[in-house]
Structures are given as structure tokens and as C-alpha cells.
Amino acid sequence: MLKRLIFALYGVACYVIFLGTFLYAIGFIGNLGTPTTLDGPATQPLGTALAIDAGLLMLFAIQHSVMARKPFKQWWTQFVPPVVERSTYVLLASLALILLYWQWRPIPTIVWEIGNPTFAMAVQALSFAGWVLVLVSTFVINHFELFGLQQVVTHMGGRAVAEPHFKTPSLYKVVRHPIYLGFIVAFWAAPVMTAGHLLFAAVTTAYILVGIFLEERDLVKLFGDDYRSYKERVAALIPFWRKS
To answer: What is the pTM for the complete model shown?
Structure first.
């Protein structure tokens, strides 16, 4: 019982850290008053800033992708109890993002800037809509399972974690990856696009496309023809465009 309690407290702590990291991301990327932001005055020469920023993005991408793969999970759970595997994954992803927030080097060269205040506000609102889509999409499937909290609570109650089953609720009938779509909208809908912001948006979008390929390969192995049929019917990112 003590071990179950420790696991539950650990899972809650990991979730709280994730939630703070997610909320900070909205301010960091939107330049909305957080202590550090994506844009700002240059603090390093261009080459140094590019190298540091690219390294931070690659660190997150590698951590996020490698730890999500089944072979790694099979190896990793020899050392980390399976019940907290997801919480640990969420914690390490959050720490990688916190490092990025802390060490990001702005590259302030303006690529585009929307001069019309009304249009600029509309684009900013679109970015917020992307964040809302991300959050809503997690709840549509199972927000607390996705971020490891349900697993530790279920274990605390002495129940077994249910086996995954294939489902396509609401938003997932329109696009296969509404969470990724929300991130892309949030990252690209910028009234002022600097070179640093462009680097962030381009690299994360490329990572998302690679992530979709890897994730869907795993889902086909897990759910077989059910997922193959789903891919034929529903677009990946662009609503109602089956071939997207």
C-alpha cells in the first residue's frame, strides 16, 4: 500500500509539472509576459543562437520519440515500474521543455509582421484556438491516461490498467491527429514571425510529421486492419482531406 501511495504521489507530481509546462508554453511561444519568451532581443551571435536553439529542439525531439517507441519501453520498464512509465515519460518531456524555455536564444530578425491591428488580433486568436484544440483533443480521448495520472490512480485502488482499444471519438472522426493539428496552428499563427519563431515552428512541424509516421506505424501493429481502414477514411491533419 505504501508503494502504491508513493507511485500515486509521483504520478500527481509529474502531472502538475506537465500542466505548468504546458501553460508556460502558451506564454513562451506567444510572448505573453512569461519570464522567458520565444522572441526578444538577441543575446548571442546568430551562429551560436542557431546552434543552441537547434540543439534544444533536437534534444526534445529525440527524448519524445525514442521513449515513445515500444522497444525502448520494453527495455526501460526493466528499471522503471510499468505503472509509472508514462508519468516518467511525461516528466522527462517536461524537463526537456523547461530546459528549452530557460536556454532559448532569441533570433529577432522579422520575417513577417501583420500591420493591420484587427488582422493581427485575429491571427493571435487563431493561435489561442490551436492551444484550445490541443487541450480539448486530449480530453476527447483520455487526458489523464495520456499524461500518466489514470495509471497511478488505478494502481492505487488495486485495479489493473485496462488494455488499449481502438476508438475514434468526435474530433478524431474529422482528423486522425487533432492534437498535432492544434500545435501546428498555435505555432504558425503569429502576428509577428521572427527568424527564431520560424525556426521553432519549422523544426517542430517537421518533428510532428516524422512523429505521425512513427506513431501510425506502431498503431497499425497494435490495431491492425482497424487502423488501416481508419487511415483510408480520415485525413491525418487537414480536415475532410482524406489524402492529407
So the answer is: 0.91
